[in-house]
Amino acid sequence: MSALPGGAAAATPLRAADVAPTRERLLAAARTVVEDHGYAGASVAAIAVGAGVAAGTLYRHFGSKAELFVEVFRDVCGREVGAMRAAVEAVEGTDRPDPVERVLAPLDVFARRALQNRTLAWALLAEPVDALVDEVRLEYRRTYRDLLAGLLVEAIDAGALPPQDAELTAAALVGAVGEALVGPVSPRAVPAPEPDDALLDGLRAVCRRATGATVQAGDRVPRVDGGR
């Protein structure tokens, strides 16, 4: 420590090498706690234990729990965007890329990943969160929309889909898939009478109709009784 006028001592500034590992551990621990217990169950104490630090250490790296979770949500949502883009690239790598499949593939992978990690999906989609975190949630919904809108424009230009407002359709698709998943990933969800593949097939058929594409013979048509 260095002395200040009057004999007071100033704390030695933290070096970047000292700060980065702790910050990364806090982010990793926060993500793990959210995956296991949701946003509401992610206490500062639990995160600190997971990171191997004292609870007060969190506030040396983040102004609040909300600021920490803004970074967690950005990381998780960024990974979802990466998975969606990878799904598009996988279609493009086939012998005869289908423009409509390029639109459907990212929606399919988003839904599939949500069903594989329901607690995290609930936190990302619908769990009550702080206003700062909700802003990130909305920001990434717009990112998903913009990704789909670009793919829709290309499919329309290729003649694979009828003319339409691509941005509006993309927003509707993001909203429809998100809303359809809220029930299944909710912590209060009743076990579905049908396997996840039935839900995924139904969503695919709904998305095809929403874009104006024809429903293929292999696509499963969703039930109209609401699953009761």
Describe the protein.
With 228 residues, this protein is an all-alpha fold. It has two domains: 11-63, Homeodomain-like (Arc Repressor Mutant, subunit A, Orthogonal Bundle), CATH 1.10.10.60; 66-223, Tetracycline Repressor, domain 2 (Orthogonal Bundle). Helices cover 66% and strands 2% of the residues. The chain has a two-stranded antiparallel sheet. Helix 4 runs parallel beside helix 7 (131-157). The longest helix is centred in the middle third of the chain and has 28 residues, at 65-92. The model is unreliable at 1-18 and 220-228 (pLDDT under 50).
Task: Record keyword descriptors for this entry.
228 residues, mainly alpha, Arc Repressor Mutant, subunit A, Tetracycline Repressor, domain 2, 2 domains, two-stranded antiparallel sheet, 9 helices, 2 strands, disordered N terminus, disordered C terminus
The total strand number stands at 2
Main structural class: mainly alpha
Residue ranges: pLDDT <50 for 5 or more in a row?
A: 1-18, 220-228
CA radius of gyration is 22 Å
Number of domains: 2
Largest sheet: 2 strands, antiparallel
Determine and state the CATH class of the largest domain.
Answer: Mainly Alpha
By CATH, the topology of the largest domain is Tetracycline Repressor, domain 2
- In N-to-C order, the SSE pattern is EEHHHHHHHHH
Which strand order do you get reading across the main beta sheet? 1-2
DSSP summary: helix tally: 9
Strand content: under 5%
Backbone shape: elongated
Mean pLDDT: 86
CATH 4th-level superfamily of the largest domain: Tetracycline Repressor, domain 2
Distance between the termini: 68 Å
Task: Specify the helix fraction band.
Answer: 55-70%
